[in-house]
C-alpha cells in the first residue's frame, strides 16, 4: 500500500511547496500528491486553486501570471511565519528534485479552462522518463483520455466521488480502457467497491484519509494507496 502525501505533508507545512514535499519525504511517504495549473507562458505551476489568493500574498488567476511572476509570490506565510518565502514550485523543478526519489501523483485541476495542459504535462514527464512512479490524475475523465491518446504509457487515474458508494460496472470498464487507477473519496469506499475496482484490473487509491483507524480499515480491504495530510500516521515498519 502506497502512502501518498496530499499536497505534500500538508498538515505540517504549506501545501504544494517544497517545504511540504521535503516533509513528506522525511515522514516516510512513498508518493507526493500535488496539483498543477497552466501559467500565462505555458509552464506548469504547482498550486491547488485556479487563483493565487488563498495560498499566497498575491491576487488573481494563475493563468494571468508567468511562472517567474508566480515564483515571486510568498506561498508560505499564510501557513506560518516560519514558512515565509516558500515559493509556488514549477512542476519541472519538482520532477527534477523528486522523480528518482519518490513517486509523484500529479493532479490536473482545470482542464476545461486550460486547454493544452494534458499535452504540457505529458511532454514534461516524458523528458524526465515515464515510469510507474509518476501518475497523472483528474476528476475530468476526458482529460485523462486525452493524455492517454497522446502519451499511452503514462499511468493515469480518474478521481471519483461515487453517489451512495456505487459505481456502475460500465463506468469502471470504461475507465480501465485508458487508466490504471481510480482515486475514490474515502467516505464512499467499501470492501465491495474495492473488489469491484480490482476486478477490472484497476488499482484503488483513497482520499483524503487522516484517521489511522480509517486507514487500517481500508488497508484490510486491500486499498492500494492512501492519500493523506499526515503521512507519519501510516509510516511503515522499517522505513526511516
Ligand atoms: O488526490 C485527491 C485529492 O487531492 C482531491 O481533492 O481538492 O485536495 O485536490 P483536492
Ligand atoms: Ca489534489
TrEMBL record:
Annotated PROSITE patterns: GP_PDE
Domain GP-PDE per the UniProt entry, residue ranges: 1-238
Domain of life of the organism encoding this protein: Bacteria
MF annotations from Gene Ontology: phosphoric diester hydrolase activity
UniProt-listed InterPro entries: GP_PDE_dom, PLC-like_Pdiesterase_TIM-brl
Transmembrane segments: none
GO BP terms: lipid metabolic process
Protein name as it appears in the record: Glycerophosphodiester phosphodiesterase
Amino acid at each position: 500500500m502506497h502512502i501518498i502525501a496530499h499536497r505534500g505533508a500538508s498538515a505540517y507545512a504549506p501545501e504544494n511547496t517544497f517545504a511540504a514535499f521535503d516533509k513528506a519525504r522525511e515522514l516516510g511517504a512513498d508518493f507526493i500528491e500535488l496539483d498543477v495549473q497552466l501559467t500565462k507562458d505555458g509552464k506548469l505551476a504547482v498550486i491547488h486553486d485556479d487563483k493565487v489568493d488563498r495560498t499566497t500574498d498575491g491576487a488573481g488567476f494563475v493563468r494571468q501570471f508567468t511562472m517567474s511572476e508566480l515564483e515571486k509570490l510568498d506561498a508560505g506565510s499564510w501557513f506560518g511565519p516560519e514558512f515565509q518565502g516558500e515559493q509556488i514550485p514549477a512542476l519541472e523543478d519538482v520532477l527534477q528534485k523528486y522523480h528518482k526519489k519518490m513517486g509523484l501523483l500529479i493532479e490536473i485541476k482545470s482542464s476545461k479552462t486550460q486547454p493544452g495542459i494534458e499535452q504540457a504535462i505529458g511532454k514534461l514527464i516524458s523528458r524526465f522518463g515515464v515510469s510507474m512512479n509518476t501518475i497523472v490524475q483528474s476528476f475530468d475523465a476526458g482529460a485523462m483520455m486525452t493524455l492517454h491518446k497522446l502519451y499511452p504509457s503514462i499511468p493515469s487515474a480518474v478521481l471519483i466521488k461515487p453517489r451512495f458508494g456505487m459505481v456502475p460496472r460500465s463506468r469502471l470498464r470504461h475507465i480501465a480502457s485508458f487508466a490504471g487507477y481510480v482515486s475514490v473519496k474515502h467516505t464512499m469506499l467499501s470492501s465491495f467497491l474495492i473488489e469491484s475496482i480490482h476486478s477490472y484490473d484497476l488499482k484503488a487509491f483513497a482520499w483524503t484519509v487522516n484517521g489511522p483507524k480509517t486507514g487500517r480499515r481500508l488497508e484490510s480491504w486491500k486499498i492500494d494507496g492512501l492519500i493523506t495530510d499526515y503521512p507519519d500516521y501510516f509510516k511503515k515498519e522499517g522505513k526511516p
